[in-house]
């Protein structure tokens, strides 16, 4: 029985094996493979646990842990092929229906499964490619996504191999189109479990986890070494950065963190609920990557100035400007995202005029003293936090976004008083959305000049270009001061230019 299960669907797909290896596959299929590492709590549950009252498994006696793997494979497919943002899929209220059925522990596991499968996607793909002699066809339903989710567990997570394999096979069996391949799923995953150490070592280069076009673009823009360092940073879940309203040193000490630059503090290895941290209820700080906090600082002293925060939601930069004493008008096209901005400002006891509007048609009543335009972009600078971005964005998306950015920049530049300052920024690593955008704008608008940014102003070494723009890379901010653990390093990739209307 086990023998036929292994071979069903596997024939002609697994690379030809030497006779001894061939024998090994069937042997493995007959005897449970011992886990190499201590299993996770989740995997320690019996394969078919008695349904807990009120548990999501109570409805239809499914093997424990199946619902979370099913949601993971399904969401992976939607992220990759429908370009759905991972965070939106994982949203407990509005996200994927499978998420709503999971308890808090399984939601945490779901996030970890997807995060790991996406951060290591290139390595896993190379390993599957190495083991399969031809690709699994597109019409195989969720087979490939099931394989990726299971391989992520076996290779990079503390999940018992036998649990990862058997749940994947069950999932394949439940999918009408993938069913034909369940034997293949079984055989490939057992092979990965058996040879995990060797496969990890053989396919261990971090650049594999960046699509070829994206890595080539970073190589061209920043050089081989920076591109490799950036890819390596994307393997790690980033630290938690907070921006505090005031007293950053005091808050760093109270929260056990470290001051990074300006009002940014970093908490290394924080796990758990952010809203349970000291200072959340009283609105002393908000979550914001240290790099994302830099562009608003480029406007300098904004006390009493009329400042437009354009493309403002969910409001990290609005909060900075309001906390610095500006009269802020926050504009965004998304009413839903602006509701979050309003809730954030309310918690922080900060105020701003909030306007829903498309900047392509919005008309301000009067010009502004200063403008911050945080234009919609590919977000490739945030892959550390959003590993889906690397795989859901395509070169054609960059081209489309650069057109919108140019249009928005041109339009809003007309809303500035003479002598006023405009900061344009994007959380992208692609020069087309940053340096090239500003070069084109300045060439076409002689009434504007660049106000170069200095390293002293920012406090982050290596973050200023030769032209005087801000350019952060994920591999900047290594462990400082020297000797501190590496886990304190890293930064989102941001571009910002400061322009003056003459
Ligand atoms: C990078 S996010 C802004 C992040 C925000 N500045 C912050 O710091 O929290 C880009 C925003 O641009 C908004 N957006 C995109 N196209 C727009 C348009 N044509 N007009 C106004 N807002 C737009 C999106 O809704 C999104 O909230």
- Biggest beta-sheet profile: 8 strands, mixed
Mean pLDDT score: 88
Total strands: 12
Strand content: 5-15%
Write structural notes for this entry.
The chain is α/β, with parallel strands linked by helices and 502 residues long. The chain has 2 domains: 2-202, Orthogonal Bundle (N-utilizing Substance Protein B Homolog, Chain A), CATH 1.10.940.10; 290-501, Rossmann fold (3-Layer(aba) Sandwich). 43% of the residues lie in helices and 12% in strands. The chain is built from 22 helices and 12 strands. The strands form 2 sheets. Strands 5, 6, 7, 8, 9, 10, 11 and 12 form an 8-stranded mixed sheet that branches. Helix 4 packs across helix 9 (143-156) and helix 9 (143-156) packs parallel to helix 11 (182-194). The radius of gyration is 25 Å and the shape is globular. Mean pLDDT is 88; it is low at 1-12 and 16-59. Bound molecules: S-adenosylmethionine. S-adenosylmethionine is lined by residues 311-317, 332-334, 337, 358-360, 374, 376, 427.
Summarize the structure.
The protein has 22 helices and twelve strands.
Main attributes of the structure:
globular, 2 domains, single chain, 12% strand, binds S-adenosylmethionine, eight-stranded mixed sheet, N-utilizing Substance Protein B Homolog, Chain A, 502 residues, Rossmann fold, alpha/beta
Describe how the helices and strands are arranged.
Layout: H1 2-7, H2 19-30, H3 41-44, H4 66-81, H5 86-90, H6 97-100, H7 104-119, H8 121-131, H9 143-156, H10 161-174, H11 182-194, H12 196-202, H13 212-222, H14 224-233, E1 240-244, H15 248-255, E2 258-261, E3 264-267, E4 285-287, H16 294-297, E5 306-310, H17 316-323, E6 327-332, H18 335-348, E7 353-356, E8 368-374, H19 388-392, H20 395-412, E9 416-426, H21 435-444, E10 448-450, H22 455-458, E11 470-471, E12 495-501
Bound molecules: S-adenosylmethionine.
S-adenosylmethionine (SAM) binds at residues 311-317, 332-334, 337, 358-360, 374, 376, 427.
